[in-house]
Write a structure and sequence with these properties.
It is a single chain. The protein is α+β, with helices and mostly antiparallel strands. The protein contains 5 helices and 12 strands. Strands 1-2-3-6-5-4 form a 6-stranded antiparallel beta barrel. It has a 6-stranded antiparallel beta barrel with strand order 7-8-9-12-11-10. Strand 5 and strand 6 form a beta hairpin. The protein is globular and about 50 Å long.
C-alpha cells in the first residue's frame, strides 16, 4: 500500500503559488495575438455614391469567410430599397497590406432575414478568411470578444475590439402578452420558429452590426453581432448604453453558406 506523505512547508508554499497563478490567469490571456489575426479579416460595409456628401456611408461591419471573397454581415445592414441605377452602390472597404483602406464592389449571394444574416461576394483579390467555429459549444459564462466599427466613423475607420461574456442563451423572439405589442418582424420570426441567440454583457453600437463574435484564444467565429438593447430612443444607445448586446450563433452562418456554396 503506498505511503502518504505530509506536505512540507516549501512544498505547500509552491503548491499555493501554482494554484494562485492558475486561478488568477486572465480569461483573455491570448486576446492580443488573436486580435492581430482577426483584424485583417474584418471589413467595413457601406454605400458609395459620387454625388453624396460624404460619398461613402458606413452601414455596419462584415467579415471574410470561405474563399476570402465571400463575407458575412447582418441583413439589416443592407440598404432598404432596391439597388439600381442612380442609387448608392453597396460596397465594402478592406484593409490592404500597406494598411490603407481599399473600396470593393459587392454582390448579394443570399440572405436569411429571419436570422438577420446576409452573404456577399466582393470583387478583387481575396483576403484572409476567418474560421467558423461550433457555436453549440458556447456556454453561459464563456468569455468571448467582438470586433467592429462602433458609432460609424466617429472613432475613425479603425476596427475596435470589446470583451464580452455570454450572459444568457435565450430565444430570439418571445411571444408578447398582447397582440397589439407584437411587431411585424417579431410575428415573422415566430411563424418561422424561434431560435437561440447569445445575450452578451457588452456595450455594442450600431456600427458593430455584422461583426464577428469570436473565441479570444483561437479566433474562431462563434456568432455575428446583431443588436443592442436600447432604453428609450435610438439616441439613448449612445448616451445611455444598456450594456446588453446580442449575437446570432454561427451555426446559422454555416447553414447560409451551405445554401449558397
Amino acid at each position: 500500500m503506498p505511503a502518504l506523505h505530509r506536505c512540507g512547508p516549501r512544498f505547500a508554499l509552491a503548491l499555493l503559488l501554482v494554484l494562485a497563478s492558475a486561478l488568477g490567469a486572465p480569461a483573455f490571456a491570448g486576446l492580443a495575438e488573436t486580435v492581430a489575426r482577426v483584424k485583417p479579416s474584418v471589413v467595413i460595409v457601406g454605400t458609395f455614391r459620387a454625388t453624396d456628401s460624404p460619398r461613402f456611408q458606413l452601414r455596419g461591419t462584415g467579415f471574410l469567410v470561405g474563399d476570402g471573397q465571400r463575407l458575412v454581415t447582418n441583413a439589416h445592414v443592407l440598404p432598404d430599397g432596391p439597388m439600381g441605377s442612380g442609387e448608392p452602390a453597396l460596397v465594402v472597404q478592406v484593409r490592404t497590406g500597406t494598411g490603407e483602406w481599399q473600396m470593393r464592389s459587392v454582390s448579394l449571394l443570399g440572405r436569411d432575414d429571419a436570422r438577420d444574416l446576409a452573404l456577399l461576394r466582393m470583387t478583387g483579390e481575396p483576403g484572409p478568411a476567418l474560421k467558423l467555429g461550433d457555436s453549440s459549444r458556447v456556454r453561459e459564462g464563456d468569455s468571448l470578444a467582438f470586433t467592429g466599427f462602433p458609432i460609424g466613423g466617429v472613432l475613425g475607420y479603425a476596427p475596435v475590439t470589446h470583451r464580452a461574456m455570454v450572459s444568457s442563451i435565450t430565444v430570439a423572439a418571445l411571444p408578447s402578452p398582447s397582440a397589439q405589442r407584437l411587431r411585424e418582424q417579431a410575428i415573422r420570426s415566430l411563424r418561422q420558429g424561434n431560435f437561440e441567440i447569445f445575450q452578451l454583457d457588452a456595450t455594442a453600437y450600431p456600427g458593430n452590426s455584422g461583426g464577428p463574435l469570436f473565441d479570444p484564444e483561437t479566433g474562431e467565429v462563434m456568432g455575428v453581432m446583431n443588436m443592442v438593447l436600447i432604453k428609450g430612443t435610438r439616441e439613448s444607445a449612445l448616451t445611455q448604453p444598456s450594456g446588453i448586446s446580442y449575437a446570432i450563433p454561427v451555426r446559422h452562418v454555416h447553414e447560409l453558406l451551405q445554401r449558397h456554396p
